UniProtKB/TrEMBL annotation, chain A:
The keyword Oxidoreductase applies. InterPro entries: FAD/NAD-bd_sf, FAD/NAD-binding_dom, Metab_Enz_Cyan_OpOx_G3PDH. This is FAD-dependent pyridine nucleotide-disulfide oxidoreductase. Residues 4-313 form the FAD/NAD(P)-binding domain. PANTHER family: ANAEROBIC GLYCEROL-3-PHOSPHATE DEHYDROGENASE SUBUNIT B. Pfam families: Pyr_redox_2 (PF07992). One of its GO terms (molecular function) is oxidoreductase activity. Keywords: Oxidoreductase. Signal peptide: none annotated.
UniProtKB/TrEMBL annotation, chain B:
Pfam families: DUF1667 (PF07892). It comes from Caldicellulosiruptor kronotskyensis (strain DSM 18902 / VKM B-2412 / 2002). This is Molybdopterin oxidoreductase. InterPro entries: CPE0013-like_sf (IPR036593), DUF1667 (IPR012460).
Amino acid sequence: MEKYKVVVIGGGPAGLAAALESFKSLDDKKVLIIERDKFLGGILNQCIHPGFGLHYFKEELTGPEYAHRFIEQVIESQIEYLTETHVIDITPEKEIVAVNKKGLKRIKTDAIVFAMGCRERTRGAIMTPGTRPAGIFTAGQAQRFINIEGYRIGKKAVIVGSGDIGLIMARRLTLEGIEVKAVVEIMPYSTGLRRNIVQCLDDFGIPLLLSHKVVKIHGKYRVEGVTIAKVDSQLQEIPSTERFIECDTVLFSVGLIPENELSKKAGVVLDSKTGGPVVDNTFSTSQKGIFACGNVLHVHDLVDNVTKEAQTAGRYAAIYSQYSELFENNIHINIVAKEGIRYVVPQKLNKNFVQPFVLRFRVDNFYKDAVVTISNAGKILIEIKKSILTPGEMEGIEISQKILSQLEFSNDIVVSLQNI
Amino acid sequence: MQKNKVTCILCPRGCTIEKKAQGDTFEFTGFGCKRGMKWAKEEFTNPKRILTTTVHVKNGEIDFVPVRTNIPIPKEKIFEAISILKGIEVLAPVEIGSVIVKNILDTGADVVATRRVGKKDSSDD
Ligand SMILES: Cc1cc2nc3c(=O)[nH]c(=O)nc-3n(C[C@H](O)[C@H](O)[C@H](O)COP(=O)(O)OP(=O)(O)OC[C@H]3O[C@@H](n4cnc5c(N)ncnc54)[C@H](O)[C@@H]3O)c2cc1C
Ligand code: SF4
């Protein structure tokens, strides 16, 4: 059986960056990437719009261009990779079971990096009533059909959800000559970046209907339209505000879920808030030798953050393959999300690696003029003022050596938010 | 209607930049950096956008290659540019960065490929 030091599952930006970093840190260079798709690059291959890499490369790239820079390095370094190969199981002995055209493959490794990305929530996940005709897609599915396969998916569309993917697809459909009747958002705010609202909706005069939901889909064989209605502050439909919009296509862009089927099989403990594994600052999961990064860990809005996080995960996976004893399970202090903070990643700090890291978190609501504090043993270690915080934007705080040196290790680290 | 408020799109901060008349000149407020202010001035007078779309590829491992303009082009030329690109077919292999259309619509912008597309592997079908 083939044997590796580190095997990375998933060849998207997270997997590529993790593999490159593991490779750099190892002497014998036995690193493998396994990707189920035909090409490396992950979801970026279908994200042909600009907006990637501003933080990491200080220039604005499209998805495929961003991916290309890492794919090139992987090829130049001669890191081994398998495409069109689907990992289906991981045994407790860290044997990876994968299938491809040639059949079943078993691979042995010291450390594994999970970089499987995420999948989209569907119409079913938000329980939209009505018939089940043709013409209903998730936004990412439509993106793949249009940008990679080149299909024309309809003539008149309504988009449900105003996160970045919904907004970007509104523009993409418009450029393809498909009329976007409206973007319907149940919340009173869009979770998309403001620049996407400007460039994708305002530019083309596409209405954004906040505090609205689709209450019914009509049509027997093909979508014939949707009924929308206003909702109140409890997100309940307000009677007699229904309105029919004629369309033949409905795109759902209603959230992403980390892809953790494999993690569950491997017995990795998941966080109910992020939907991804619980990790420490080395990105080690509860299963020794299994690390996680990118959208499989928690859903990111910027790929630049994915890259940085994955580099750390890749580096520690390489360290694990040499010094596994440093990653025991009883050597952690907890990092806890309190008032106003929906979740934090990492959720633990490994006492053997008290090294600077970025604490990432999302807030649970829309906040103006608030203070985020990080405290430990009743003492405030950091206080950061923020003029605006929204659930749609992931925040990050550098935890420096100086802060770490003040920690009392018998106590939790607590992250919370206060209004001013 | 002349807009007097724009949202900067250069970075994720998305500052709202306002234009106010100060006698004969204008004053700009709300920007988070100089680059943004320069951008806003142009957005008030001649808004430009990077255009991204796909172009047909003949004999490639995939049938469409993603493309972009290498610099932003005037907003009002976007649809005209799209219709030109719809009628184009390039032959694989296509290298990343190779020019698909030079100086499209006299905007000074080249349309370049944003992905490498190899030739179709005959064992694929
Ligand atoms: C529509 C859209 C627009 C976006 N726009 C922007 C933007 O403008 N700017 C920005 O910075 N970011 C943007 N993002 C976010 C960014 O693209 C993601 O955060 C990033 O791609 C996540 O990387 P990843 O490697 O974790 O996941 P992915 O790119 O999803 O890669 C995961 C890979 O794992 C593979 N895989 C999964 N399971 C298995 C298995 N069992 N075996 C083998 N392989 C497997 C998948 O095939 C996939 O290739 C956007 C995302 C989307 C979907
Ligand atoms: S003005 Fe500067 S800081 Fe503000 S959004 Fe534009 S580029 Fe970003």
